[in-house]
Description:
Two copies of one chain form a homodimer. Chain A is of the alpha/beta class and 337 residues long. Among the domains of chain A are: 5-48, Orthogonal Bundle (434 Repressor (Amino-terminal Domain)), CATH 1.10.260; 166-296, Response regulator (Rossmann fold). Chain A is 44% helix and 15% strand. Chain A contains twelve helices and twelve strands. Chain A has helices at residues 5-12, 16-24, 31-44, 50-57, 77-91, 107-118, 135-143, 166-179, 195-211, 227-238, 252-264, 298-313, and strands at 62-68, 96-102, 124-127, 147-150, 161-164, 185-189, 220-222, 246-249, 274-276, 293-295, 322-325, 328-330. In chain A, α5 links the parallel β1 (62-68) and β2. In chain A, α8 (166-179) runs parallel beside α9 and α10 crosses α11. The longest helix of chain A has 17 residues, at 195-211. Chain A is elongated. The interface between A and B is large, with 59 and 57 residues. Chain A binds a DNA duplex (30 and 30 nucleotides) through residues 4-6, 14-18, 20-21, 24, 28-30, 33, 48-49, 51-58.
Amino acid sequence: MTPTIRDVAKRLNLSITTVSRALDGYDDVAEETRERVKRVAREMGYVPSGAARQLRRKRSEAIGYILPTIQPRFSDPFFSEFIAGLGDEAASNNFDLLVSTAPPGEIAEQLLYERWTHSRRVDGMALSRMRRNDWRVEFLSSKKLPFVTMGSSLDSSSHPYIEVDARSGFSALVKHLVERGHRRIAFIGAQPDLMLQSVRLEGYRDGLEAAGIPFDEKLVAEGNLTRQGGFEAAQRLLAMPDPPSAIIGINDLTAIGAMNAAHEKGLAIGRDLAVAGYDGIEDAEHTRPPLTTLNQPVYDIARRLVRMLLALIASESLAEPQILLQPELIVRESTNP
Amino acid sequence: MTPTIRDVAKRLNLSITTVSRALDGYDDVAEETRERVKRVAREMGYVPSGAARQLRRKRSEAIGYILPTIQPRFSDPFFSEFIAGLGDEAASNNFDLLVSTAPPGEIAEQLLYERWTHSRRVDGMALSRMRRNDWRVEFLSSKKLPFVTMGSSLDSSSHPYIEVDARSGFSALVKHLVERGHRRIAFIGAQPDLMLQSVRLEGYRDGLEAAGIPFDEKLVAEGNLTRQGGFEAAQRLLAMPDPPSAIIGINDLTAIGAMNAAHEKGLAIGRDLAVAGYDGIEDAEHTRPPLTTLNQPVYDIARRLVRMLLALIASESLAEPQILLQPELIVRESTNP
DNA sequence: TCTTGCTTCCAAAACGTTTTGGAAAAATTA
DNA sequence: TAATTTTTCCAAAACGTTTTGGAAGCAAGA
């Protein structure tokens, strides 16, 4: 069996207290003893039992993240980047990352949050894809479990988050298209309960208003953040009697779907139809033509979120609890042939 | 504070033993009492402490997976699909998925494996991207920690795994290209220590041999499983005096990179140069032209791996410890204009 | 000599479960 | 009725740590 602290203590003729304190770096143990303890512990391959430590310390040294699995077999590069960021930063602080999956809004999701918070399997959580008046915010606040979010929600409660200013971003995107001579600019959005939908749609409207173009709701279609959703929405838009000359996708996947729909209709993207997205995923560099997009540094945001979360867990106060970043407009040939 | 089992017992005037056994479904508690216990427990919002349970049961009800983060900001759709599969299946068995990240082959990786196994934070592990004579296999075997792998390694020890028969797959891919009239078929591979490199390269050679085409090592280039790697390798291949008429990428990302290199050189893919990949990621459906590939059901494999792993953890014996699946050749316009 | 103050160690009490080995009460059998 | 079995409950002992509140030994000061 794997050795326990008792085995180490016995071998050293010391009490388990001293072993524990020696390894934890307390200063009431002689430097020479500490060295002996450390050496023997390593020799014996001793690693403290996570469960026992958690039970006693009442902390799990783990943070949680629940992946919103919409369809089975989903694959959105946003999430692998986000998880990599969470994992890297957690790992470099000796924290673990607990991941689970649940379809958003369903009962299973709620059960999972309850299980994790009540059983104290995690010391804190990271949330993404915020919804309007997200129940998770209220729930976690009431349970006093530290959490951080990517993007804000519409709650009055103001929790720590990092938000990318998508509103200005989309406005800038519209400006860019207007400068290229476009007047009929369509927008393919997402489910209306998502914060990113309201925010980005508003940015789109801001942009139109600034250019003096009246808002036309027939130019707004609903997708679902996937390629397929973008594809179908774009088909509908392009089948209109007076189709748009430019399409903005709420994210890159949507935009890529739209490009495919256009291509299938025989339109030359960039010339006949401009297309732009949001996210800055790697795929967007490799479409043909390459996709104009707004880049947000997902990996870095994830790492930074974890740092904030760890500070909260250590009940330090945050210098900057709400952070607003600007996305970077990357103009490529899909809007600039 | 969150209620403990003691609080529930006190409220019911029962012993904590009975509460525990009632909730765990033992049959030595009266049906009527069980109902009372369940009701009150729910009312009080009682959830057993994970740490205490783990400590006593000596099981963590969690499985681990370590993401091979090669570069910072990596995003390979393979992994989001794989993690979604692991997470979904684990969640539906009330298991948690512990994820961490480590660059493969470095000391940090080893430390992580040691920490997780010794501290018993996980009951078992899933591995992917197997290396030749993978030390992890030996390590986990010696620690007697259950594990399953996607793909086999070259170890004599035969652990449970699911392997996709990439060797036949690549052979079939070559056959397909030969039938389309190609004789100079290049292969862009990956780092030589990866199992998938040896296996897929062998499949490629099998295919050449079956077609009576001599193997030419100048047609084999090394990539790194990313688009960028594929792009650069393809540039080298296409700059040769007698360039290939077809390129096979070891995975879809590599192939997509190769398509871009060809496109940059003004070659019409499908007509001037055939390109094919392996994985069946969603991106491959949306390249222009769509990419011929070998599809492997990553999501399902991940779920199945977890089922195998849970059986191992419950020390059941597996009906089929080693599973070999056939990839499905999906011919698209990149090789079939 | 008796305090006082360090330094270095430790015994015992948590932490919140599950499990073991009965015991009391009720039901069945002889 | 007495003996046996079945049903239903429980006290106490783990599980492996960390933390609390000293205690022993020794040097320095009075």
